[in-house]
Specification:
The protein has 397 residues and is an alpha/beta fold. The protein has helices spanning 19-35, 60-68, 87-102, 126-140, 193-202, 221-238, 249-258, 264-282, 302-310, 326-336, 339-342, 364-372, 377-386; strands spanning 4-8, 41-46, 49-54, 75-82, 110-117, 145-146, 153-159, 163-171, 183-187, 207-214, 241-247, 288-289, 317-318, 389-393.
Length: 397
């Protein structure tokens, strides 16, 4: 039974003086996330490595899942902790650990033993540990083969206060620890793209809040619930998401009645951006995030993006999916678990009043002159902001 884990991280190891800040943030995140599941855990930060020790009663799969999905973690290794450091015992316990890790019938790969010794009083040096353990394992498991240059598996033996043995590596999500890079405001729709976009930015260490525009009664309560559900799935990686739900009906109707229909989508999207920026600034966000991708639909041609982007005055707009093909986005949404919810068939406020032939090369000047006709829009924007609903979305337990 494995009760300890070694967690490795990549980028945050090279941040010079800031390194401790990042390590502390990572340990804090791991602790917080493990607190939400059953079991008692101790997170130890020691010389550039993080160890997690679990008490007797814990769910192995859930624990690994939580750790590997913590932003910043690149690898999770299950560690066998050997208390009795007497060499024969270490060898026997290592053999048992390998059987548990790989299965008795699968011990037929090439390997190499690596060792670290922080307990300098231990009777053997690291090269001796490697050599002796290598011999022992070859004898015990005749189908193993040593390959010091390109081994399939590395078997680590670390001599510390206890002996730690590990080999199998579980890939983590990587990225940067949450909260090390401020906060951003995600424009979250019910589609496939925007949840993925939010996830990708959060993975770089940013906290996320979100805004959703709905148009009741044209869009249903169920469509709104779907967006809350998506936010909840994303929050299992990002922690709390304050979701601002904006009633967009009046604004949308007003644009529909006042502006040329082929410009509807673009003008609507510009107002979404403007409102999102207001909410973002109110909430100390440093950027907006959208799920836009070049050419995916008429409102996302390079010309359209230029026009939409113009509506935002003071914040950068992060578009992590800008160069992704749809299939690549679908793959990520399946990995992070948002796909099944995203494809549920509920109407979207963008699809209610769409023009049959939307402009694909909107001229900014024309769009702006159409918008001049929207003389009452400012008060509508204020009203939409005032009547917003805020849902504090936290992960499902
Ligand atoms: P998605 O799958 O994210 O819905 P999409 O392909 O449907 O994307 P659009 O509807 O053109 O694309 O929207 C582009 C981006 O604008 C979305 O990724 C999202 O960030 C934002 N957006 C669109 N509709 C809404 C909405 N109703 N509320 C909040 N943001 C929205
Ligand atoms: Mg959409």
């Amino acid at each position: 039974m494995f009760q300890a884990y070694l967690l490795k991280y990549a980028e945050i190891g090279i941040k010079g003086k800031n390194r401790y800040k990042f390590e502390n943030a990572l340990c804090g995140q791991i602790e917080k996330r493990l607190n939400h599941i059953d079991g008692k855990y101790k997170v130890i930060n020691e010389r550039g490595r993080i160890y997690v020790e679990a008490s007797e009663d814990f769910d192995r799969d859930e624990t690994v899942e939580v750790m590997k999905n913590t932003f910043g973690v690149t690898q999770v290794c299950e560690v066998k902790v050997i208390e009795d450091k007497e060499w024969n015992n270490v060898c026997e316990e290592t053999a048992k650990a390998l059987i548990e890790m790989y299965g008795e019938n699968n011990l037929n790969f090439t390997f190499k033993v690596k060792s670290r010794r922080s307990d300098k009083r231990y009777a053997m040096t690291s090269p001796e540990v490697c050599m002796e353990m290598g011999h022992f394992l070859l004898e015990r498991f005749p189908d193993l083969k040593v390959d010091v240059h390109e081994p399939k598996e590395i078997i680590w033996v670390e001599i510390r206060d206890k002996v730690y043995v590990y080999s199998k590596i579980i890939k983590g999500v990587g990225g940067m620890p949450l909260g090390t890079n401020g906060k951003a405001m995600l424009l979250l729709s019910g589609g496939i793209d925007s949840p993925v976009a939010g996830y990708m930015i959060a993975r770089r260490g940013m906290l996320i809040d979100a805004v959703y525009f709905h148009a009741p009664p044209y869009t249903s309560e169920r469509a709104k619930e779907k967006v809350v559900d998506l936010a909840r799935i994303v929050s299992s990686y990002t922690g709390l998401i304050n979701l601002h739900i904006i009633n967009f009906t009046d604004i949308q109707m007003y644009i529909y009645q006042t502006c040329p229909h082929d410009e509807l989508t673009i003008i609507m999207r510009r107002y979404m951006m403007k409102i999102a920026e207001r909410i973002a600034l109110e909430n100390d966000c440093l950027a907006l995030i959208t799920g836009e991708s070049i050419g995916q639909v008429a409102s996302q041609t390079a010309h359209s993006l230029l026009t939409t982007n113009d509506a935002v005055e003071s914040l950068p707009v992060y578009r992590p999916l800008i160069a992704f093909d749809k299939q690549d986005i679908v793959d990520i949404s399946q990995e992070i678990g948002t796909y099944e919810t995203s494809i549920l068939p509920f109407e979207d406020c963008c699809t209610i009043f769409v023009a049959k032939h939307p402009v694909t090369k909107p001229g900014l000047k024309y769009i702006q002159s159409s918008e001049k006709k929207l003389v009452d829009i400012d008060s509508m924007v204020e009203k939409a902001l005032e009547t917003r609903e805020i849902v504090h979305v936290t992960p499902k337990r």
